[in-house]
Design a protein that fits this description.
single chain; alpha/beta; Nucleotidyltransferase, domain 5; 2 domains; 5-stranded mixed sheet; 7 helices; 10 strands; kinase; ATPase_NBD; ATP-binding; Type_III_PanK
Length: 257
């Protein structure tokens, strides 16, 4: 079985793939100091809790936090006796190379999103990924990642507002009942929620206009379902898109021998 690992700035996600479906998805906070033993203790405890009998033979890693990769490599080698594929590193090839400015590094999560989106939708796709940042990934007709947009993440914006304005409380993001807030919390929730709806709509419209072809819009990441309720922002929501993309990249490398 395949263990896919997506390490972001805030959370790290493990999903177990049996070749046809994901058996479970496990989530923990990202800490660069977490050891291989600590990863395994957390992982094995949850696998036992869910009553899963799994035999991991391969591991693929996508990480936007370089400092965690070493311990994840040790984790794979020590506990599963395998050398993991690491997206963006030598030994892990991509089905289609990105087309961006020379010397530009592309986040491995964005490469995984492109692979997953192309596999499911055939290209000409915008992926809106809600994480620490809100990323817009443009996937060309042939499946290549060809660029995108990076905007501040929703929770990051809320935290910055709370820290930068002493009188404003920290609030949870939700869709408010009305646009005009009648208290401080309602005002903040309306500003953040509808502000991001406008941001998403505006950026997608500009991407489509510049791209010049019909495009499908796919939402992914933890807050994608929330913003799908705010307006018709997405053609579809796929919470496992990044992990699916990792399985696509893994299969491409495995089949190449």
């Amino acid at each position: 079985m395949l263990l896919t690992i997506d390490c972001g700035n805030t959370n790290t996600v493990f999903s177990i793939w049996d070749g046809e479906k994901f058996l479970c998805t496990l989530r923990t906070s990202t800490h660069h100091s977490r050891t291989a033993d600590a990863y395994f203790t957390w992982y094995s405890t949850l696998v036992k809790h869910y009553g899963l009998d799994v035999d991991i033979t391969d591991v693929i890693i996508s990480s936007t936090v370089p400092r965690v990769v070493f311990n994840l490599r040790v984790f794979a080698d020590r506990f599963f006796d395998c050398r993991p594929y690491v997206v963006g590193k030598p030994g892990c090839d991509l089905p289609i190379l990105p087309r961006v400015d020379a010397g530009t590094g592309v986040g491995p999560d964005r490469l995984a999103n492109a692979a997953g989106a192309f596999d499911r939708h055939g290209g000409d796709v915008v992926v809106v990924d809600f994480g620490t940042a809100t990323n817009f990934d443009v996937v060309a007709e042939d499946g290549a990642y060809v660029g995108g947009v990076i905007a501040p993440g929703v929770n990051l914006s809320l935290e910055a507002l709370h820290q930068g304005a002493a009188a404003l409380p920290h609030v949870d993001i939700t869709q408010p009942d009305k646009v005009i807030g009648t208290n401080t919390v309602g005002c903040i929730q309306s500003g953040v929620f509808w502000g991001y709806v406008g941001l998403i709509q505006g950026i997608i419209a500009r991407i489509k206009d510049e791209y010049g072809r019909p495009m499908k819009v796919v939402g992914t990441g933890g807050l994608a379902p929330l913003f799908a309720t705010g307006d018709m922002l997405f053609d579809t929501i796929e919470d496992d898109l990044t992990m699916h993309g990792l399985t696509v990249i893994y299969n491409y490398n495995k089949n190449r021998g």
